[in-house]
TrEMBL record:
Matching InterPro entries: PAPS_reduct_dom, Rossmann-like_a/b/a_fold
Location of the region described as Disordered in the Swiss-Prot/TrEMBL record: 61-99
Pathway linked to the protein: Cofactor biosynthesis; FAD biosynthesis; FAD from FMN: step 1/1
Keywords, alphabetical: ATP-binding, FAD, Flavoprotein, FMN, Nucleotide-binding, Nucleotidyltransferase, Transferase
Gene: Flad1
Pfam families per the UniProt record, alphabetical: PAPS_reduct
Domain Phosphoadenosine phosphosulphate reductase, chain residue ranges per copy: 130-195, 210-283
Name listed for the protein in its UniProt record: FAD synthase
Keyword Nucleotide-binding belongs to the record: yes
């Protein structure tokens, strides 16, 4: 997800004084589709749909699903009740045990730094003032897993910090399905809007005025993110909010090393050669991972009949991280 609307205002860590949300019981009059989905914490009865009142957000209870058709359903035993963030493995280990010791130590240090960032954040904001943005991509997947591990370590419920997801009519089915399964597996509350990121945050600020800061999975190699600070306020024409960037210093391969070392489930598109996932109309498998060079896929996705049939190596086999976005098509 390109976050073009975020504007840099500082290059250093900004620690803002904690403010209390304004009391505002009026919901936005926008016609944007908003819903919240929450996995029930009981396993004795099947999931059901809760019909909301007219002016309240839609509240759903999702059925439990495995992370992929290759995996068994989540267990409902006592261990699962005690550790609701534990989830099934969607993909086998990719030789993670053969990674060099220095790589393992590097990822452990990355995780330690992320946990320290979460601790610093909770010294500034209350849990009820936080939300995290999730788009189903690899970076947000790492952010989700790190945050859930930290909350479990601190004895905080996984549902206390909701997940913000922005739906699009042009999204990949694999992404939408993966998001729902993450909600189920990690047991988080989903807040869902349609439109652009700016529109979503605007309506969220009206509907959830207590939210003061949002975790984002941006890295400093992403477009418009090279000068971001770990804590960066939004620009004046955006809803006033603090942007929290715990993954800024992570590299492309750091992300995949973390996923493989911790057996973190991820969207299946990355097995098919996608390295940076946007929408269907602007994303194709990375041509630098193509096994067959007979197809020129740098034009329009619909014009290439071989996109789904030609072989691609998985995303983590991309040697040059500067080519991460080579599968993104230019805007028309």
């Amino acid at each position: 997800m390109q976050l073009r609307g975020w504007v840099v205002t500082s290059s250093s860590l900004l620690l803002l004084a904690r403010t209390r949300p304004h009391r505002n019981t009026r919901l936005s009059t926008s016609t944007m589709n908003q819903c919240q989905r929450q996995l029930t914490t009981t396993t004795a009865t099947p999931a059901s749909v809760v019909v909301p009142t007219k002016k309240s957000p839609h509240l759903f209870t999702l059925k439990k699903k495995s992370m992929s058709s290759k995996c068994p359903e989540d267990s409902s035993d006592k261990k699962d009740e005690e550790h609701p963030q534990e989830h099934p493995k969607e993909h086998p280990q990719h030789h993670s045990k053969s990674l060099p010791l220095e790589v393992r130590q590097r990822i452990e240090e990355r995780q330690r730094q992320a946990f320290e960032f979460f601790s610093q954040t909770l010294q500034i904001y209350g849990v009820e003032e936080l939300i995290f943005c999730f788009n189903g991509g690899k970076d947000c997947t790492v952010l989700l897993d790190l945050l859930m591990r930290y909350l479990r370590q601190e004895g905080i419920s996984s549902g206390d910090i909701p997940m913000l997801y922005i739906k699009s009519g042009d999204s990949f089915v694999e992404i939408d399905d993966f998001v729902e399964r993450c909600v189920t597996s990690y047991r988080v509350k989903l807040v869902e809007y349609e439109g652009s990121l700016k529109e979503a945050l605007t309506h969220m600020a009206a509907d959830m005025p207590r939210i003061k800061a949002v975790f984002v999975g941006s890295r400093n190699t992403d477009p418009y993110c090279e000068n971001l600070a770990p804590m960066q306020p939004t620009d004046n024409d955006w809803p006033p909010m603090m942007r929290l960037n715990p993954l800024l210093e992570w590299s492309y391969h750091d992300v995949w090393h973390y996923i493989h070392l911790n057996d973190v489930p991820y969207c299946s598109l990355y097995d098919k050669g996608y390295t940076s996932v946007g929408n269907r109309s602007n994303t194709i498998p990375n041509p630098h991972l193509r096994r067959d060079d007979n197809c020129d896929c740098n034009t329009v996705v619909s014009d290439c009949d071989l996109v789904e049939t030609v072989g691609y190596r998985p995303a983590w086999e991309l040697e040059d991280p500067t080519l991460e976005r080579a599968g993104r098509l230019p805007r028309k």
